[in-house]
Amino acid sequence: MAFDNWGPQDMTAPAKRQLPEVAVQRGMVLEDVQSGWVGEVTRVEKSGGMHVVSLEDRRGKTKSFQLGFGFLLEGQAIRLMPPAARAAAATTPAARTASGSVRVQGHRAQVAKASRIWVEGKHDAELVEKVWGDDLRVEGIVVEPLHGVDDLKSAIAAFSPGPGRRLGILVDHLVPGSKESRIAAEAMTVPGAAGNVLIVGHPYVDVWQAIRPKVLGIEQWPAVPRGIDWKTGILSAFGWPHETAEDIGLGWQRLLGAVRSYADLEASLLGRVEEVIDFLTVP
Asked: Distances in Å between the alpha carbon of 233 and those of 28, 47, 208, 226?
């Protein structure tokens, strides 16, 4: 018997309940009790000394909330905590890069080789860099945007490909009968291209589509009517700003921010990029 419990007590006061503490993870679905906002965790970042979580609803709209109390997870009230610290390296498997390869520890980036990876535009280059950048620095391979492939034949001729000076080129919408397939076939007639230039491509209108829809919390990419700029149409369908070039750039950064590793990309892009890297690095 605990003698210090004797004496007057307020029997109507509810017992205090300790809420379970749950570390936030990308992909979990939460409800903010105060606003009623329900969404999937797409990003966690530290801003102004506090952790902030972004929740994206089923319409693709996003709101940010401070971590702590006031969240429901599967209908249960929780205290939302910062991401769990990673276990010590000695107790975890070998660290891997975003591409899935084993990270080379203590390795300095090589001086850039003459060989290059060419992609169509800035967004393609940023996506390749985010997923394969660590691997490419080990190999000394640089990714350069072409800003379109309409004059690909001339660009290859000016590069003067040859042994030890190879080109791997990734082209959007490279499907049979397309304009891009004709451009690629003509480009391979440049002297020195045979055996030293590899042109591959993915089937998507734009590299944006190489991001798996479920990573963005959608079933599939929206269909954009003919006559409407594809990127503008996509951002409009998401309900995001889409009027200016700056809006397009900011929209892309939101999409790119959802990509954490190769697992967030479609296999049809993964295979082509790996094929190009092998072509440039295997003797």
From this structure: 28, 31, 12, 10
Number of Cβ atoms within 10 Å of the Cβ of 145 = 15
Helix (H) / strand (E) containing 170: strand 167-171
DSSP category for residue 152: H
Spatial contact of 48 and 32, defined as CB atoms under 8 Å apart = no
* Residue whose entry in the numeric block shows the structure tokens 């004059």: 151
> Which amino acid is it at 103?
R
Residues 208/126, Cβ–Cβ less than 8 Å: no
Sheet holding 167-171: strands in order across?
142-145, 116-119, 167-171, 197-201
CA separation for the pair 9, 12 (Å, rounded): 9
Grouping H, G, I as helix, E, B as strand and the rest as coil, residue 141 is coil
Distance of CA 128 to the CA centre of its chain: 10
Spell 206-224 as b/e; 16+ CB within 10 A means b.
Answer: bbbbbbbeebbbbeebeeb
- Per-residue model confidence (pLDDT) at position 244: 94
Q: Are strands 38-47 and 50-56 parallel, antiparallel or unpaired?
A: antiparallel
Length of the chain: 283
User: What parts of the chain have a pLDDT lower than 50?
Assistant: 1-7, 9-11, 13-15, 87-92, 107, 109
- Could you give the CA distance from residue 201 to residue 208 in angstroms, rounded to a whole number? 14
Computed from CA positions of residues 47, 213, 224, 60, in that sequence, does the dihedral angle turn out positive or negative? negative
Read off the pTM: 0.62
- Beta strand pairing call for 71-73 and 62-66: unpaired
